[in-house]
Amino acid sequence: MSVNQQAHTGPPYGQAQPGYQGYQQPGYGGQPLPGIPHSQYGAYNGPMPGYQQPVPPQGYFPSLGFPSKGSPVSLNSDTSSLAPNFIGLLRAPPTSGAPPPASGASLPSGHPVYSQFGQGDVQNGIPASAAQMHRPPASQPFLPGSAPTPVSQTSTFQQYGPPPGSAQQLSNQMAGMTIGSTSTPAPPPAGLGYGPPTSVPPVSGSFSATGSGLYTPYTSGQGPPPTSVSQGLPLAQPPFSGQPISTQRLPTQVPGFAPPPSSTGIGPSSYPPTTGAPRPSPMQGPPLPGQTVAGPPTSQPNHVSSPPPPSTMSGPHPGPSPMAGLHGPPPPTHPPQPGYQMQQNGSFGQARGPQPNYGGAYPGTPNYGSQPGPPPPPKRLDPDSIPSPIQVIEDDRSNRGSEPFVTGVRGQVPPLVTTNFLVKDQGNASPRYIRCTSYNIPCTSDMAKQSQVPLAAVIKPLATLPPEETLPYLVDHGESGPVRCNRCKAYMCPFMQFIEGGRRFQCCFCSCVTEVPPHYFQHLDHTGKRVDFYDRPELSLGSYEFLATVDYCKNNKFPSPPAFIFMIDVSYNAVKSGLVRLICEELKSLLDYLPREGNMEESAIRVGFVTYNKVLHFYNVKSSLAQPQMMVVSDVADMFVPLLDGFLVNVNESRTVIASLLDQIPEMFADTRETETVFAPVIQAGLEALKAAECAGKLFIFHTSLPIAEAPGKLKNRDDKKLINTDKEKTLFQPQTSFYNNLAKDCVAQGCCVDLFIFPNQYLDVATLGVVTYQTGGSIYKYAYFQLETDQDRFLNDLRRDVQKEVGFDAVMRVRTSTGIRATDFFGAFYMSNTTDVEMAGLDCDKTITVEFKHDDKLSEDSGALLQCALLYTSCAGQRRLRIHNLSLNCCTQLADLYRNCETDTLINYLAKYAYRGVLNSPVKTVRDALINQCAQILACYRKNCASPSSAGQLILPECMKLLPVYLNCVLKSDVLQPGPEVTTDDRAYIRQLVTSMDVAETNVFFYPRLLPLTKADVDNDSLPAAIRNSEERLSKGDIYLLENGLNIFVWVGVNVQQGLIQNLFGVSSFSQISNTLSTLPVLENPFSKKVRSVVDMLQVQRSRYMKLIIVKQEDKLEMLFKHFLVEDKSLSGGASYVDFLCHMHKEIRQLLS
Ligand SMILES: [Zn+2]
User: Fold this and answer.
1) How confident is the model over 1008-1026, as pLDDT tens digits?
2) Domain Sec23/Sec24 trunk: where (predicted)?
3) Ion ligand 1 nearby residues (CB, 5 A)
């Protein structure tokens, strides 16, 4: 089953509910995005013509009565259920006092908006309006003085010219053969790689008023490989120059490289066990009697480049030979060359260390010993001769990191996500918002099917931008709302064609012609372009926002500002671990950092508090009270909110009462013996509170145990690891009851987003508890076996970021496409009630939605293909907006063009999400096989149609996809698809949910972690040491390494590390004294300690979650955990090594081709 063929339209949990009553969406708005940095708008001084933001309705204030339930009585009458230590706060619910100040309601005054009004009279808007357009002084990459630089697009395009023509491709392909040379480029300057310090945002930890940019340095953006050139990569050693041998052998060989049985063992689904053992040995040719297995690695040719190649080596570069790659027959052996060792590590400029002393200790280590004389046996692939992720990343950095990426060119492949680069919007959305699997899509569905390359876009609508880049402008089209196509409702964008002197415009998506509203009319210049082209973001930029009118609001009423409700588990475990006290302490200060509109004095967000175990306790924290009041609801079967007035309050107004409450909560429950909890009623309570207040909002739930107390949504412990690898394994990923699906639907309808912080000491059923979070666009944070000392920093950092980050509420996203393709499938944390609208109660700046496209007609090379993602959302101040992102792609009639313009990182992001959804319905083995098959088809299609003729025994990979095998293998070996014995069911469900919302940068580092040799770090500057490949054989016993994957940071210490380094880093005098329970590195005053801590801080800042720090000593128990992340090696759970997997892929491809 090929991935492409399965069109799932439903949400991951498959509960698209047709009957779902969403709110009315007049004319369906676009989709707004949350994370816009509001501050920027301020600088944009547009007149606020006529548009008066109506005061948001004050939802609940007027209604004094209790909600329908009527029995307010239960509150007080229930005193028995109060905790013994109840402090006597209990009082009758206050009868509505004076309506609380409508603080939240007022909009930021003078919220400057981009409006055409006021400029209308200006014929040539540029001068007059230009000034208005300019945004914040700070970021002015473009639009210096006048509107978005009228730079002639043509000139800009040149910077990143389209990929070389096909002719070149071929030649490159030839060049590519010398894999060795490509893989052994000069060592990149140390530190060049990872972002220069400048790009790195301030270390987290401290609060920042606006969450934007704080934690997400732009390094996270990724780009695809620069060149679209496809290269044939001979995986195996290129034949030695001048030796025609290789070519001749071609036909004969069987599965290319690995002659020995070991390779054969690789079944389609099971990889050969070979790797476990010293990898090299199997590969070696005929074992000579008496000969030690550890012969010199055969591969020489590729390496040649580094050290002075011995005369024999000379060959690789020249010509034809390159094809030799995967030939079965062993190439003539060459005496090991001196210098070879250096190449092993040297190729990437890093530590050369490992080899020498590492010898036999590590299984994977090939024999570095020099084995003179005897012809090297056919050897297996030399790890250094196969495509290296590190090399690709470094090459992209050096090739594309220095120039800004200008988006004016259609179908341009952006730099990789691992490259630091600036983006200039000249008509297409930044790759920080949208990345595609391919920027050149086949004109016909037949071609698309033939290639099996999925056509998908990974969209992060509210992505945080680096400070140097310009935030989307807010445009106001007045009371009639944004100008849109009459038929398909696409929003005005740079690709609309104005005709008839500017009186009408033709839609670039559906071709329908629409009248230009009188207030929007403008003359055209001699090229047919509106003279105000550069004055209007929606005509000249790829991303911008529109102010939404009341037609885009629920019930045709402008929204109220959202609310945050903190719901704290106060059962025994939560109290005993110190968690309750910790949360309460933190909230006292954190509440001052709620998100706010850029120019507002204070956040418009109101807050409320609930605690719970088997019953729920609501708190009245109205500012006029001297003390908070508690109301207990013990009837959890039919949840209602016992008070309206005083439950959701403004932080500043109720500061004293809130502080008092937060002081009292830990005391009130200090002696609790209640161990049982409820869960669904907690969400219901939050939902009811938001309903009563008529606003959207977010619930922050802090929960510790499986909810077994009698109540709706009660769960059983149904964990059963015996189900792994059976047909029933999928049930572990499915919720155990549909109750939560229905609850999620209600939450989405209200705009109630649920963020869940869990602290389990045992199975907690993340697959079920996470349903509401997942479908409302929320986040889950998991702290297993939470301990104050070791986990509090991580938890608090996560909580701070989560509370402060940019988020849009009540969001709906739709992706429109030009004729010929359409969005058919969606992946992410959201809910869908129909096949086109992605609904999210909340969407934050870290969440992505992946959209797959299918053909429904032919495309043309001339017109290309267009995407328009529109997100309708409510800002944190309660303003309704639309964020629009446009992207134009090329279309091709030649498959080679498709393969030249793909982005593997994005492809992997899509494939991982596809596979992770697949486990809900199919056995994981089926899912893995389908992935392998699809990728084999992708590569076989390339080989058959695009690569130059060559030996069948040679593996040829398109340049842009040369990392597809290694990355795919990482996905296949991941905990969800192939769990090791230590992985829990909850871990798998958790990771499955996380990955589903990850952007491309996150999946990239999650599946192929970053491994940095700390001992190679330059303590004199801020750079990061150059990364090395994730394999044990790259490690040296004498060095210290850091590995990060976005969730964890490991610091691995070799047994032979110099005592001085250990002293400097850990403050202890010997290896044996290093504690592996440290959760932070000691703060020591020496350059090495400072350097390492700054590296850790830099990495923490780049990720959306605070990573857990784990110290691993070589040969210690924890090392098994660490080795799990050395993804190029064979894994304990049976995952193949990179080399073995590559052999396997090659075999699969050959089978498809034969
Ligand atoms: Zn249209």
Assistant:
1) 999 999 999 988 888 899 9
2) 559-803
3) 485, 487-488, 490, 507, 509-510, 512
